[in-house]
Amino acid sequence: MILVRDIFHLKFGKAKDARTLLKDAQDLNKKYGFDKSRALTDLVTGHSYTLVLESEWGSLADWENAMKQGLGAEDWQKWYQKFIPLVENAGREILNIVE
């Protein structure tokens, strides 16, 4: 099992807008196989306006297939174009889950 963490540092004051867009994306997440996912925001430590999207996958290949299918979809691209202006920078961590 792997855990993928997409870490977004949002522009100042854009956290509320990002959370609204995440609600809009719930159906897209299910449609493209991101059903074992969750969103986290910073509380009071570290980099302010941080949004972390975590998802669990059976294998790296499973995640890659879902990404190919979702990223190429017109409805996902339309949503993502609304999300891009809210982000200052981003990164990704891919970790093994130790069971």
How many helices?
Answer: 4
Major β-sheet annotation: 4 strands, antiparallel
Rg on CA atoms, Å: 14 Å
Q: What structural class results from the helix and strand content?
A: alpha+beta
Order of helices and strands: EHHEEHHE
User: Could you report the average pLDDT, rounded to the nearest whole number?
Assistant: 90
The proportion of residues forming helix, as a percent range, comes to: 25-40%
What does this molecule look like?
This protein has helices spanning 15-24, 26-31, 60-71, 74-83; strands at 2-10, 37-41, 50-57, 87-96. It is α+β, with helices and mostly antiparallel strands and 99 residues long. It has a four-stranded antiparallel beta sheet with strand order 2-3-1-4. The mean pLDDT is 90. The relative contact order is 0.32.
Task: List key phrases describing it.
99 residues, single chain, 4 helices, alpha+beta, 4 strands
